[in-house]
Protein: glutaryl-CoA dehydrogenase (ETF)
Amino acid sequence: MFCQAARRCSRPVATTLRLARPKRSYASTAGPMFDWEDPLATKTLLTEEELAISETAERYCQERMLPRVLQAYRDEHYDAAILTEMGELGLLGANLEGYGCAGVSTVASGLITRAVERVDSGYRSGMSVQSSLVMGGIHAFGSTEQKERFLPSMAQGKMLGCFGLTEPNHGSDPGSMEATARPHPSKSGYVLLSGAKTWITNSPIADVLMVWAKMQETGKIRGFLVERKNCPTGTLETPPIKNKNGLRASITGMIQLDDCPVPLANMFPDVEGLSGPFTCLNSARMGIAFGVMGALEDCLARARTYALERRQFKNNPIAKYQLVQKKLSDAATDASYGVLAAIQVSRLKDEGKATPEMISLIKRQNCDRALVNARTLQEIFGGNAVSDEYAIGRHVANLFVTQTYEGQSDIHSLILGRAITGIQAFV
Amino acid sequence: MFCQAARRCSRPVATTLRLARPKRSYASTAGPMFDWEDPLATKTLLTEEELAISETAERYCQERMLPRVLQAYRDEHYDAAILTEMGELGLLGANLEGYGCAGVSTVASGLITRAVERVDSGYRSGMSVQSSLVMGGIHAFGSTEQKERFLPSMAQGKMLGCFGLTEPNHGSDPGSMEATARPHPSKSGYVLLSGAKTWITNSPIADVLMVWAKMQETGKIRGFLVERKNCPTGTLETPPIKNKNGLRASITGMIQLDDCPVPLANMFPDVEGLSGPFTCLNSARMGIAFGVMGALEDCLARARTYALERRQFKNNPIAKYQLVQKKLSDAATDASYGVLAAIQVSRLKDEGKATPEMISLIKRQNCDRALVNARTLQEIFGGNAVSDEYAIGRHVANLFVTQTYEGQSDIHSLILGRAITGIQAFV
Amino acid sequence: MFCQAARRCSRPVATTLRLARPKRSYASTAGPMFDWEDPLATKTLLTEEELAISETAERYCQERMLPRVLQAYRDEHYDAAILTEMGELGLLGANLEGYGCAGVSTVASGLITRAVERVDSGYRSGMSVQSSLVMGGIHAFGSTEQKERFLPSMAQGKMLGCFGLTEPNHGSDPGSMEATARPHPSKSGYVLLSGAKTWITNSPIADVLMVWAKMQETGKIRGFLVERKNCPTGTLETPPIKNKNGLRASITGMIQLDDCPVPLANMFPDVEGLSGPFTCLNSARMGIAFGVMGALEDCLARARTYALERRQFKNNPIAKYQLVQKKLSDAATDASYGVLAAIQVSRLKDEGKATPEMISLIKRQNCDRALVNARTLQEIFGGNAVSDEYAIGRHVANLFVTQTYEGQSDIHSLILGRAITGIQAFV
Amino acid sequence: MFCQAARRCSRPVATTLRLARPKRSYASTAGPMFDWEDPLATKTLLTEEELAISETAERYCQERMLPRVLQAYRDEHYDAAILTEMGELGLLGANLEGYGCAGVSTVASGLITRAVERVDSGYRSGMSVQSSLVMGGIHAFGSTEQKERFLPSMAQGKMLGCFGLTEPNHGSDPGSMEATARPHPSKSGYVLLSGAKTWITNSPIADVLMVWAKMQETGKIRGFLVERKNCPTGTLETPPIKNKNGLRASITGMIQLDDCPVPLANMFPDVEGLSGPFTCLNSARMGIAFGVMGALEDCLARARTYALERRQFKNNPIAKYQLVQKKLSDAATDASYGVLAAIQVSRLKDEGKATPEMISLIKRQNCDRALVNARTLQEIFGGNAVSDEYAIGRHVANLFVTQTYEGQSDIHSLILGRAITGIQAFV
Structure:
C-alpha cells in the first residue's frame, strides 16, 4: 500500500531547507559522516520498511501539506481533505492490525507523526485524534462488530472521529467528569447521554464521536461511539472554538449532549473506568513524543538556513556567531535525544514492555524540549521572527499547546514523581 | 493637564483581576502590609505627581484601551484614535519640556508606558514611536523651527510619526545602512532620498517619517523629517506588513523611498552618524524597560486570578499547588526587581547620570525576564491558554517581539560585554 | 568610630582584581561613565556616611581577611580573632542603637556584610550570627538588664554568640522543635533546658548561646541566653561539625543541652512563639541578601580578570568570545539588580515599611541568582576552576549553602506564594 | 575472566539506597513494571555478557570502592591499589582486543565507567586515563612491539599510565602546544623532550607517560611513551597539584620535562598531528558520557532516599512535595535519555559508524545534564547537603570538573555548531 502511495507523489521533495551541507569537519579519511539532521544516526535503528514509510510520509507532507499550512493557520481553517488524503496513503491508524489498517510498527507510526508535525502540530493533532485516540480506542476496546463497522472507513479517511474526554471544569483530573449516561426511559437498549466536552479536536467535523461518560446508576465511566447522523436534532451540538493562539490549522470544538440517545451496541462492551481513555491517551502521547521532534527539527532546519543566509556586521553570516551556534547545537542535541527515546519506547511497546510512565516521561520531555529549543531558535530570526512566513512563530505557538494537552507537563512530572517515590502529590 | 484628563475618566477602574486579596500572612499586629502587586513597595519611590500620572494613565488604559485590544489583535488592526486620545490626556512625549509637552519626569513617562503595556505591547509600541523615537528625536536634534512645527501637534496626537532606521538587510548593524540622500539635481536646498526601511511601527499611518540615510557625498548618516503630504506621487510608499504573529494590535510597515525630494530645512541641523538614532533608541528602550513590566504584571494578575478560580483534584484551587505557587513567586520577584531598576535608571537619566549601557542592561533584562515569566505563567492556564480570551498568549507573543526589537537581547549582552571587558565581540 | 578604624588600615586596598578598566564604549563627549562594578550606579543612593563605612569595611576585608581565607577554608578553620577585629572597627551589630553599637542605617549594615562576603560567605555567616541573630535578638527582645549585660562586649567582639533554632529533624519547620525548658525541680527562678540543635554557626566558640525551646508546661516557644561559663559540666556540649563541603571558613556545630540550668533572668521577658526567632532571622536574611551580592561581585571581578588574561586560539583573550561575554553580562546584571533590591528593602526597613515577605523575596532571589551566576562564571575558568587558588570554586560551594540556610529557596517561594494567593502550600 | 572476577566479590551489593520501591502506579493487571532506576528499560538493549560485566563492575564498585571514597576525598588521596584491583577484575582497557585485554563491546566498557562513576568521578577519571587515553592510544597507534611491551601489564593494573596533552597556557586549543622534541645532540635514535603539561590525572604515580610534543624540526605533533624508570634525574618531574575543589579522590599533577631523553622506539610510529590525541580523547569522552550518568543516578538514588526519610511539616516525607518530585522526575528523565544516547553511540562506534561530533554531542549533553540535575537534587537535602556524608556535594563538585575537561562544554557546542553550519566560530 505504501509503495502505491509513494508512487503517486512523484515530484521531488522540496529541499530548499537542506542547503549548505557542511563538509566533514576534521576528518581526512573516508569515515562515517556526521549528519546534522540525524546527529545520532537514529536511521540505523530503522527497518527498510520503516524507512520507506517515513519517506512516503515525509514526501506527502512536504509536497501536499506544507503548501497549505500558512494560509490555513492564518484563517484558522482545517482542510478535512487532508485526512482523506492520508487515508489514501494508508497513514491513518497505520499501526493497527486488520480492518483495513496497515499494521506497521509503532516506530513506523511515530515516523508518520513526525513527518506530519514537521509541517504543523495542528495537522498532526488532527491525525492523532483519528488514528490513536479514536481508531486506537475502537481497536482496543470495540466489539468485533464495532471494529468492522467503523475502522475500515476511518482508515480510509472517509469517516472522521473525535475523542470526548476533557470537560470545561475537568482537565488534568478527568475522573471528576460530569457527563452522564442514563437509561433511556422508553427505548430499550438505549442510553441518553448528557454533558459537555471541550477542547475537542475535530469535534465540529466528526462523523463519530467517542464520548466518555459516567453511567448514572453505577458512576462507572464507559465509552460510547456517538454517530452524528443518528442523533436527533437538538441532542448533539459541536460548536467550533475560534480565536485560538496555537494549533490554528486544526479544528477544535465542544461537544454538547442533551439527552442524546445512543444504542448500547455503540458502547464499548468491557472497558470501564479511566483505563479506557488512558489507554487511548497513551497511544496518542506516544505519537506526540515522536511528532514534536519533527516540529523541532523543522525549526532547527529553518533557523540554520536563516543563520547561513542572514548577514550582519561585516557581511558575516550570523551562523558564524557563537551565541547562534550554541542555540543550534542545543536544539540538535535535544532533537536527537528525543528521537532516540521515542524509538526506544516504541520498540518496547511493540514488545509489550512499555509502561504508561515511560510514555509520560517521553511525552513530557520531548514536548518540553521541543518548546524550549524552538523558542531559543526563534531568537536567531531577530525581529524577522514576527513574520509568519518564517514559520517558526507558528511552531512555537503550536508547541506550547502540545506541552499542555494530553497531560500538562507538570502533571506528567507528578506522574513520574509518584512512580519514583510511591507517593502521589497531585493534591 | 493630568488632572483634567483624570476627571474625564470617571468610571471606576475594572477590578475583576484584583479579587481575592489575601490576608496578611503571619502578622498579628498592624504593621506594614505586603502588596503582591508591588512587592518591593516601589510606590514609595514616586512623587505625588508621578502617582497621579500613573493613576490617570492606568485608568485610561484599563477603561478605554483594554476593551478594544482583543478584537484589534484578532483583526491585526491598529486604531489610530488611541494616539489622539492619549494626546488629549497629555500622555504623548510627556517627559519633554516645552512645545506643548508635559515635561514630567522620566519615571512618570515610564509609568505611562507601563500602564499602556499592561494592556498591550503593541499599543505601547505605537506610543513609544510617537513619544520617544520621533518626538524625542525632534526635541533632541531638531532646530527650533522644526520643534515648533512638529512637536505641538504631535503632542496632541493630531500628527503621527514613525522612525525609519532598520533596513531589510541591516537590523542589529544599522551602520551598514544603504539608504542614501543625494543632492537634488535641479532643486536647490533639497535632497533626494532613496532606500527601504522595514519593520517600521506606524509607517502606514504616519504623517511625518523620521528617516535616517547616508549622505551620498560624505557617507555620513543624517536624519530627515519626511512629510508625507509633500511627497510627490511615487516617491514614498509605506505598505503595511501583515500576518504578524505578535504585536498585532500595532501597525507595522515598510518605508520605500524613490528619489523622494526633501528640503534641507527638514534635515536635523547638527547630529551626524549613529549618535542621532542611538539617542532616540535609548529613550525608547528606557520606555520598553518600564513597559514590559506592565505586561508581566498583567500576566501575573491574570494567572493568579485563574489559579484561584480554577479547581482540579478534589476541588482545590490550583493556586494551592506548589508548582503553581513557584511560578507566581518567580514572576512577582522579577517584576518587582525590574520596576526598581527602571526607576533607578530613570532617576539617573533625569540627573544626567545614565549611560547607554545602563539602558541596554535594563532593556535586555526586563524584556528577557518578562518573556520568560510570562511563558511560565502561561503554563498555569494549561490547555485553556490557547484561547485568546485569557490574554496571556497575546502577551507572550508580544513580549517575544519586544525582546528582539530595539536591540535583540544577545546584542545587548554583547554591548554590556564590551563595556565590562573593553573588547567588542560582535564580529 | 569608623574614621578611626579606617585610619588603622593604612595600606592600600589590593587592586589586582580591578585591572584593565575599559574605556567608555561609544561616547565621545565627557558624559557619565559606565562602571561595570556598579552598573546601575547604586552608589548614588548612598549617604556619605554609608560610603565611608563601606570603604572602611572593604579595606579591612581585602587587607586583613582575604589573606587568611584560602588556608582557613582548606583547613576548615575559623579564626575567631576576626570577630574581635571587626568589633574594634565597629562593624558588629552596627545597625543597632545604643549599648556600644554604631547605630548606622540598615543599608550601611548591609554594605558591611557585602564587604565581608566579597571575601567569603563563611566569614559573613560568622558575623551575621553575632550581629543580626544574637545581638539583634537581644536588642529586640532582651530586657534592659540583658542588653546592658551582653551587647557592649558583643559589639566589641569580646563575647561571641550563637543562635540555636534548627534541630536535627526540624529545619524548614521550626515550629515542631523538640527542645524543652522545664522548671528546675529544686532551684527557684531557673529552668532546665534539654534538646539538640544542629548546623549552629559559631556554637563551638560561643560564649553565649541564644537557644529557643518550648516551655514544657505551655508548649510555647521562648528564648534563652545560655552562658557557657555558667553551665555545669555535662549539661552543655557544642561539638563542631566537620567535613563540610561549603562555608569551611566558618565554624559550625551542634548544641546539646542536657538539663542545663538557666536562670529565668536569661529568658527574653516578653516574646513568645516563633515571632522571636523569625524576627532575628529576618534581620539576618536582610544581611544575606546584601552579602551574597558581594560574593557574586567577587566572582565577576575574578572571572573578568581571568578572561582578560587567559588566551586561547590565536592568542585572543577569551574575554573576546561571545559565550564568555554573555556570562559576564548576565552576572553583572543580576548583581546590580540584587544590590538595588537590597538597598530598597533596607530603606523600607528603616522607615518601618518592610515586611517579612519582602525579605523572603530578596533573600531568595539574591541567593539564587548569586549561585546561578557564580556557577556560570566558574565555567569561564575551564579546568583551572578546580584549583582553589582561583577562589571561585569556594564561592560556588559557599553560595549553595546560603541558598539553603535561613529559609531554603523553595520554602521562600512558598512563603511568597502564600502572600500572593492567600493559600499556604507547605503541606 | 569476568565470571571469575564476579565470584571473588561474593558479598551482596549494598542495597540501602534502593529501599522503598514503589508499587506499580495505575496498573491492575500484571503488565510490565516501571523501574525508576532504568525508566526507559535500557537494560533490554544489553547482551547477557554486558549485563554480567555491568553487574561485576557494580558489585566491585559498591563493595570495594564506595567504602574508601569519603575519606579519600577528604584527604585528597588516591589509592592506586584501585587500579590493580580493577586490573585483576579485567576492567582496564576492557574494550581493547588482544594483549591481555578483555575485548568487550564499547557498551560493556561504558557500563564499567558508569559503575565506577556511580561511586566517584575521580575514580572513573583515574580509570579512564589508564584505559581509554593511554591503553587506547597505545592500542590505536603503537607499534606491535609497543603494544606487547605495555598493554599486558597495564591491563593488569601493574603499570600505570598518564596522558600529557594539556599545557598551562593551552587547554581548549592544544594545537598551540609548546612542548617540543628535538634530536638528541649526541645519542642517535633519541630525542630530548622539554615542556610542561598540567592537570594530568595520575601523573605523579604514572610509570609510563604518554606525552604529546612538537618535533622541533617539523612542528608536527608526535606522541611519546616516556618511561619514568628510564628518565635521568632532573629530566622528569611530576609534582602533584593539591587543594583541588573537585575530583579530590583522583590524583592530578604536572609533567615537567627538561631535555628528557626518550628513544624513538617509544614514539608512535605513524600518527602525526592532533588526530592522535583526539582519537584518544574521543575514546575517553565516550567513557565520560557513560560515566557521568552513573554519578547522576547515584545522586538521584540518594536524593530519593533522603526525600523518603526526611520529614517536615506534619511529619510528611518531603518526597510528597511537588517541588521535590519535579526535581526527581527531571533527573530520572535526563539520566535515562543520557544512558540511551551513550548506548546508541557506543553501538555505532563498534559498527564503525560513530563520528567525533557524535561523541562531542553526548559528552557535552551528558556532562551538562548530570551537573544541572545533580545541583538541583542537592537542593532536596537543604542545609544537610553541606555535610559530606550525604555524598551529593562531592558528586556536584566532581561533575563540574567533568564538564570542563576533555573539551569544555562550550567548546563542544562550537564543535557541533561547526558541524551543523560548516562555519567554525572558535576565534
Summary: Chain B touches chain D at residues 321-323, 326 (CB under 8 Å). The two ends of chain B are 49 Å apart (CA to CA).
